[in-house]
Amino acid sequence: MKKLVLMMLCLLPLMAVAQTSEEKGLEIAVEADKRDMGFGDVSSSLTMTLKNANGNTSIRKMRSKTLEVQGDGDKGLTIFDKPADVKGTAFLSFTHVLEADDQWLYLPALKRVKRISSKNKSGPFMGSEFAFEDLSSREVEKYKYLYLNDDAVGGEDAFVIEVRPNYKYSGYTRSVVWISKTTYQPLKINYYDRKNSLLKTMVATGYKQYLGKYWRPDEMNMVNHQTKKETLLEFSDYKFQTGLKSRDFSKASLKRAR
Amino acid sequence: MEARKKGGGYRRLLLAAALICSGAKAGEWSGYVAADYSYFPQSALNAQQFEHGRLSFSAEPEFYHSWENDDSLTFVSFFRWDEQDPQRSHIDIRELLWMRARDDWELLVGIGKVFWGVTESQHLVDIINQTDFVENVDGEDKLGQPMINATFLREWGTVDLFVLPGFRERTFAGKGGRFRPNPEIDDHSAYQSAAKDKHVDYALRWSQTFDDWDVGVSHFYGTSREPRIIPTLAPAGLVLTPFYDIINQTAVDVQATLDEWLWKVEVIHRSGQGETFNALTAGFEYTFVGVMESSADFGLIAEYLYDDRGASASTAFEDDIFIGGRLAINDAASSELLFGVIADLHESTRFYSVEASRRLGDEWVLSLEARFISSVEKRDPLASFRHDDVIQLELAHHF
Predict the structure, then answer these.
(1) In this complex, do A128 and B99 lie within 8 Å of one another by their Cβ atoms?
(2) What is the ipTM for the molecules in this complex?
(3) Nearest Cα to Cα of residue B230 among B239, B217, B221
(4) Is the pLDDT reported for residue B14 higher than 60?
């Protein structure tokens, strides 16, 4: 028995060497997921600055709440404050690992809660360069992974992995993600469109640690290489574990979300 | 001494003010002011009605205040000034609502607005609020309704109970206005209930989500929001008197959201308003995402509208079909286009409508609305609107 254990121990480094790029990619994704587990709930304020090719800017402000759901995708609620004509509009989503997400939109002028098709994953979020799928919760099972190489972004060591969506209706064939070796958070993502040409690059900066565990960025900047438009997404007022419940993410809660 | 005393009083006042303010999270104003111009290309059906153009202004200031304990107060007022029709110039309190929300219940007291239903072409199930018909003939604008509304959130669904003290009469264009029945609507309404507009109405709704299915079942007892229009002989001649019956209405609304398909149905069963009847709207919306390799979405909408009273129905949509489209460009200006036609399956009557809007800068919204009615049979309820084709352009400033 002892011999067997010893033999196994000797074999372990060999097995690590024999790990395929797929296995290493998945391992990194699982580790990233594990490190962010247990945050419970988080809310934050967001400012989006849309810039077109001529440099004209337009501002959107919103607040976002997320509830961690064990064994499924997270629940999210986004409340819009600016531009003024969409003030009070609220967006509720229950993300799922592989089946279609559930989404509702609240239109304050009509007091109407509308269930909407979640097929629109590739559609722009509020006319920005971020698509809905760029901002929804990243569950491990939603993608296939491939480890490419090691690299550095702004002096920070990173794993570079290729990620291919497993779900229907993605706007991307694949994306290449630079994941920090220290925080296991994405530092940079290159998105490739359905024709597999480089579409967008997202760079996340200003990562800070909350509750001694969870890393969140202060800024995410998305540049569209094909249209030359870009969107800067700034986060503030991160609050973790404020005691949000699933009732705060219900159709009824949409009407009082403001 | 005197000064100190005064100072103390001032400090106490400041302290009191600070206490009140610290108990409040926010008190904020928002809303819009808008100017619009409508053009009616056809000459009016009746000589008393105005011709061609109309300038109008509207505003909807809103105040919202919430306290530390999450109670909130919402006040939404509405103002409309119309160049041509004094009946259309009106003021309304759309909302004046105090709300307390806790984990599994909510209580709303005041004047409020509630929407029920899923379909696009008409809103059969939506019954709590009266339609502000002078605002728009599409029935989407509503008058504020006095209410006490208790909501209970349970695992097996959401239950809403309503006590509705007081009734609002439907607004109608004046004799000089467009989109008015012919002959004109009398200023005096008639009621079945001796309590008239003081009758207390009740409503109950259960709603629940089962995976891809959203289901609602509701019952309403009280004054019908939709009046029967009764021809009456007045000293000035023949007029139309709105008659408000006491009705019972049971309704079901269901939406199935299956990928790009939204399947929708609304059914009502109403008694007390003449013959007991059933009505239905059912159809689908199919969304094409990223049409022609752009980021735009196009939704194709088709709905069937039915009312088993047939041609005797007060509604124009007793056996009709609605075909429409919704184009969302998904650009920074939120450009949108909604168009459609309701066609009678037995007659040649067609009701076309187009709505388009886009944001200009961060605070302005430009919108265009057009409605056309073609080949109306004389006995169709839409007949009195047959010369009221209209194109309207509105510029709104949101704050």
Answers:
(1) no
(2) 0.88
(3) B239
(4) no
